[in-house]
Fold this sequence. Notes:
Strand content: under 5%
Structural class: mainly alpha
CATH architecture of the largest domain: Up-down Bundle
CATH topology of the largest domain: Growth Hormone, Chain: A
Number of strands: 0
Radius of gyration: 21 Å
Low-confidence stretches: 1-7
Number of helices: 14
CATH superfamily of the largest domain: MFS general substrate transporter like domains
Number of domains: 2
Distance between the termini: 34 Å
Oligomer: single chain
Order of helices and strands: HHHHHHHHHHHHHH
Amino acid sequence: xxxxxxxxxxxxxxxxxLLMAPFDILASLAMDIYLPVVPAMPGxxxxxxxxxxxxxxxxxxxLGVGQIVFGPISDRIGRRPVLIGxxxxxxxxxxxIAATSSAPTFLALRLLQxxxxxxxxxxxxxxxRDVYAERPxxxxxxxxxxxxxxxxxxxxxxxGALLADYFGWQAIFLTLGVLxxxxxxxxxxxxxxxxxxxxxxxxxxxxPILKDGAFWTYTLGFSAAxxxxxxxxxxxxxxxxxxxxxxxxGFSLVFATAAVVMIVTxxxxxxxxxxWGIAGSFARGMGLLLLGAMLLVVGESVSxxxxxxxxxxxxxxxxxxxxxxxxxxxxxxxxxxxxxxxAVALYFCIQSLxxxxxxxxxxxxxxxxxxxxxxxxxxxxxxxxxxALGRLTRQRAADA
Length: 400
């Protein structure tokens, strides 16, 4: 068995968070801070909205797929070189994006930015597992990470709108680059290697995981929830800025309300999960996605887009996302504690592929400046997930 002790990693929880959290936050911030300028980017770069949508979708896909790639690399060469290399790639790509006026170059640099973010993210969470897997501080670290990430969709677009208004769109990516350089400069003298001895010898057991019905059912539900938010932030700028007439800052403020609803719901999710159980919370989460989708279709059909017809239905979906996301990891991974790292990597990788591919198809085919992509993705994925849950329930009942 690998040695998981790390005598060189003796930081307090606040010091460890200050060291690790910036890399986790930057990976998410690179998506959200960019949203207010999405409607303007086709004109700035002389391209189409579909290409700008691709810059969002590729980032999401690479961020997830990279976990399968960079996890084994970090097992072989160590967490520190993967982290530093990824952070420097992210910083370089961010700074170069600010200097480009070419759509193909912009897209290629966004891809590089996602590769760097994925590497840094994998190395960060691998370090958390190495150091805190058997320590009580681990629960605190993960909880604080989740709390911080919940605020990124709320505050990121506001920061992006303010930067773009005062300094131009390039300031968004300059800021990301500078923050990445600062985080790397802080990590270089302090981030000690934590890779367990013999980690590269661990065998990956993909087949048993991929054959498990519960894994696929709950991963599909996770994809439904996370994909709904992905389609929301892919379409919201065009719906609210281009059609509803919101300013970039006004858009950012109303967009943030969906994230606030998720944060508030998270505070109460634990008691509902205790009341309904994993399967019950999961089914109710899918039901809320369906209800929100129906409200979106009605609003799009009877009225021009507004806060009431687009954002309020998203609040319903946001509550469903929290109910779903609170239980999907346990539901998908509960049988794979002995290969938890591999199972988690597959869980996030598959989710990112489903969200990136199907979410993009929904946006492109159903009209990216309407509520129909969000309604279509949420409803189809929720129905498919509920069918899978029904089959899983019947199978378990038959096995019992």
